[in-house]
Amino acid sequence: MTEPPAPSAPQSQADLSRERIVAAATALFAEHGYDGTTTRTIAAAAGLNVATVAYHVGGKGDLYREVMRRAHEAERAAVAGALREFGARAGADPAGAAVAFADRYLDFCLERPDVPALWMRRWLADAAEFAGLEEEYTRPLLESVRDALAAALPGVPPERAELAVWTVLWTVHGFCRSMIRGQVPRFRAHLHALVLRELGIGGTP
Q1: Global pTM?
Q2: Which residues lie below 8 Å from residue 59, measured CB to CB, with a gap of 6+?
Q3: How big is the CA angle at 37 (ends 31 and 43), to the nearest 5 degrees?
Q4: What is the rounded average pLDDT of the residues 173-197?
Q5: Which of 29, 56, 92, 96 is packed most tightly, with the most Cβ within 10 A?
């Protein structure tokens, strides 16, 4: 008989406070940007005082780095899973595999709207003092997708695959922050056509 999994250790009060702070900061950075958010507003949203926030997470810059790290880790895990599915399907059905990958990324962004919001804030020159985050997080992830596409689709050169990935990224992020974000089926059909066109592959998704 299989033993049930051991219950996870309960979080300490310090852990709970830290998670409240990170959750509050994530929502505020996504909505107002790093530059438009103060430690005081984060503390108020978390229901704590400024001194407690500083004790648990350090300064606002430390908190921003933690928020962006967590956003990246969630995105990286979603992309890694989507790439595994893409690799298993691409040989027999490259068009279907490509649009399924795009679907997985869209679904992730819809489930975690803070992630596209955080990155789009940076595109507007928010948090300019953290200039290295794109090179640290975005580029390795983008290159992993580019290389997987180019390897699985021999007719698609890496340069074209890279631009296709960027196009999907910009389009999905923009949709998730747009006035029509409730029109998911309509956008999904558009995204499928966009992916096939950008990669220059045919077929029915």
Answers
A1: 0.90
A2: 39
A3: 105
A4: 96
A5: 29
